[in-house]
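Lab notebook, page 48
Experiment: co-folding of the full assembly
Goal: obtain a model of how the components sit together before planning crosslinking
Operator: M.T.
Materials (sequences as entered):
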Amino acid sequence: MPDQRRLAILAHEKFPDRAKTALGVMRYSDDETVAVIDRDAAGSRVHDHTDTVPDAPIVGSFSEIDDEVDALLIGIAPIGGGFDESWRPDVTAALEAGVDVVAGLHYFLNEDEEFATLAAEHGAEIHDVREPHPGIGVAEGKSDEIDAEVVLTVGTDCSVGKMTATCELVDAAREAGIDAGFVPTGQTGIMIAGWGNPVDRVVSDFTAGAVEEMLLEKGDEHDVLFVEGQGSIVHPAYSAVTCGILHGSMADKLVLCHEAGREVVHGYEDTELPPIPEYVDLYESLAAPVHEAEVVAGALNTKEIDDDDAAREAVEAFGDELGGAATDPVRFDPAEIVDEIVGER
Amino acid sequence: MPDQRRLAILAHEKFPDRAKTALGVMRYSDDETVAVIDRDAAGSRVHDHTDTVPDAPIVGSFSEIDDEVDALLIGIAPIGGGFDESWRPDVTAALEAGVDVVAGLHYFLNEDEEFATLAAEHGAEIHDVREPHPGIGVAEGKSDEIDAEVVLTVGTDCSVGKMTATCELVDAAREAGIDAGFVPTGQTGIMIAGWGNPVDRVVSDFTAGAVEEMLLEKGDEHDVLFVEGQGSIVHPAYSAVTCGILHGSMADKLVLCHEAGREVVHGYEDTELPPIPEYVDLYESLAAPVHEAEVVAGALNTKEIDDDDAAREAVEAFGDELGGAATDPVRFDPAEIVDEIVGER
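Observation: model returned without errors.
Model output:
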């Protein structure tokens, strides 16, 4: 596959508001989107609906795409992660044209007999990004041997914007002339990057190992690696993944991500979020015995605050609480914290 | 399967010194061992070799066992966790007799065509205890809703004796008249208990969920549940599992396990163990946002100390460092710390 892929992104009946994976890939990936496939919006263009991503035509099916395509990417996910049979004609058309298919569903397209047969017949590859490759194993504690500085986004909770903050920081660092790489750990991040291990899907004993493997692979290609964090260190269900990423990455610097106004764990309303300084202490003291890490900056998701001035105040208060620079990397300028993160190089 | 199983334990060429799983099951399980199978020691008895476990005859093959058997348990593991073909006649003889087979190998006996066929033909079950059942999912944060008090063993490192300490504490608590249950999390613990989830083998996102499922299942059957811990919260490779067990169990009390003289992480000699008080702070501060837990006692493995007086001194120093009662539950009396652990009920 070429470095920059030409993507067709399937988002039937859900573009743009219920197609978060599609938007994430269109916004942050180096790949080019040549068409969005949505039967409800066919005939319009992306910019008729949203200007937060590059423009592209919207078509009703894969076979209506005129341009050359390297991969068909499934950019939506039904609740439960199943495969919607109404997408089958698009997937078969792509495979018959020798075009790769990228999916992050729980249902593995590789295990679908028709798709597997077509892929083999036409020399196309199916990438189920949620399926870990079989070589992932136990961490050896070697992530600190790479040349790159490692920056990890950590969170106060799930769904506070760690992946978005990570992508914004990579882009801002590159704009500042820094050779920055992105290390994905979840399905949308993997689709954006075009590679990566689904750290939340590997065997629990291999959590740190799945991260270490990626860092050892990319560690000498960039000056700074931004690792996408997952969950939160005090999450009742997902803290194991968070802890494995913290120790597996042996991060040098941490960026604490939070959503303004979030007071309890999302979906676990009995569990209150601790104060921000407690998160700073917890992440730093837990990291230290394996590799010293410092919370150097914060990314605050202010989407629930309407007023820009109020959002700016919230960002400043957040920075005071964590003892570093802070911004909302989507609403304001991520460059505001890039210096603090990589300035000491 | 009956509550107390009659076991035949396979330990060819390795009993007793290189058969740790066999010895663990014989020492701590409620099951009765009717025979050990070891072709090198055939004709002798267990007590000719060790008096740390109940006596039993040693035979050369499964077909030489006179008594009735409920299950054949594989009590040894070659490096790598493979299946040794020299064991095949014993496994087939057991299955042909309708006897269940219990194994903790990486090689799943259920996926061996001959074994699967024989098991189906003769109504025997194969339990690959390292294979998680497919229903394990995300934790719901409900372990604190059970009636039982939850005591979790946590460690300064891997292989410091957490499973042994947990089993000794369960036995000592029962001797003190306490209705205590054992919640296993690893393969030997599962073989001892005859049930349980291999927490280190589940999907990383389900680590806490695999523990919670067990606690919800057993939570109303006992007054105190002793949960077997894994790894260490500062282990470069395995901390994810440790963290998932800590939050998934929502433990009330923690017992810190350590091996006297251990100064660096086993197998990761670049990583020094932090001081004992730092472990106490880390475990308690990490647990608190999900469920308050207190390190109330310590279990020190003193097997590397020859002299009993020196071992006693090491135990007392360890207790001082962690701020609670301490013992070596194998060398001395586990009852020494049981009061401190469950005394407040």
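Interpretation: The domain at 6-128 of chain A is CATH 3.40.50.720 (Rossmann fold).
Next step: discuss with group before ordering constructs.
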